[in-house]
Amino acid sequence: MGLSLTHIILLLVVVLVVFGAGKLPQVMGDLGKGVRNFKAGLSGETPPDSKPENKTLPPPAA
User: Fold this and answer.
1) In a domain, 47, yes or no
2) Residue 52 to residue 46: CA distance in whole angstroms
3) CA angle in degrees (0–180, nearest 5) for 34-35-38
4) Is residue 30 part of a domain?
């Protein structure tokens, strides 16, 4: 009951139709970042994409 070559080809065709050829590289890049962050989270490390930012809060309204 595994994935055969026919199933994989059908899945790729459906993904191509849903996302379109132009947006597919962006979707795959986002998927790769998600997998990388997931693996980093499992190992207890900080994800490579999450750099601490120096954000200052606006002053409170008077």
Assistant:
1) no
2) 10
3) 85
4) yes
Q: What is the pLDDT of residue 50?
A: 56
Is residue 29 in some structural domain?
yes
- Match 């026919």 to its residue by tokens: 6
Taking alpha carbons only, the member of 33, 1, 29, 28 closest to residue 15 is 28
Amino acid (1-letter code) at residue 34: G
pTM listed for this prediction: 0.47
How many structural domains is the chain composed of?
1
* pLDDT, position 10: 93
Q: What is the pLDDT of residues 24-60, one digit of tens each?
A: 888 889 989 999 999 888 888 776 555 555 567 677 7
d(CA 14, CA 34) in angstroms, rounded, equals: 21
The token pair at 20 is: 């379109």
Residue 34 structural domain = 5-42
